[in-house]
């Protein structure tokens, strides 16, 4: 997996935060264009409750998502530091949810009544509300005590660990890279230089 590919599989809110990995020249935005957002939505489609079906993102859809991502990351980083999340971040996430609250749309599927949550408004506003809701759920659950940052030197990814010994965001991304670097350091230090 390349560092330019989104890391997915964590809580949805953390997958959003992790769309800003460290790059060679600072943080990289993997949701900088509508095309990148479209690719990320495709990766996350099973968790987005049908909010993105048959809708192509536009440049105006990016700003609400970037705002929710920034608020979520501010709260996550504060919790990693064992400090109080910024009030501005928590209020921002609440406001994003209020911008497009879910309404249970009732329908008949031929055998039973179904109730599917739907949101109104532009795609960016609906997605921001859904992602802010995912952040609110994650931030308020006891599992947030298992929040960790990847221990690789050049990584800023965050995750909720299910195992206390987990150290890296991904065993294939940072785990292998760290183990290989450690191996080379050990073997290069162990061999005397020849003159």
From TrEMBL:
Q: Superkingdom of this entry's organism?
A: Bacteria
Residue ranges occupied by any Zinc finger CGNR domain in the UniProt entry = 146-187
Protein name, please? Answer: CGNR zinc finger domain-containing protein
Q: Which Pfam families match?
A: ABATE, zf-CGNR
List the PANTHER family hit by this protein, alphabetically.
BLL6575 PROTEIN (PTHR35525:SF3)
- Which Gene3D superfamilies does the record match to this protein? Jann2411-like domain (1.10.3300.10)
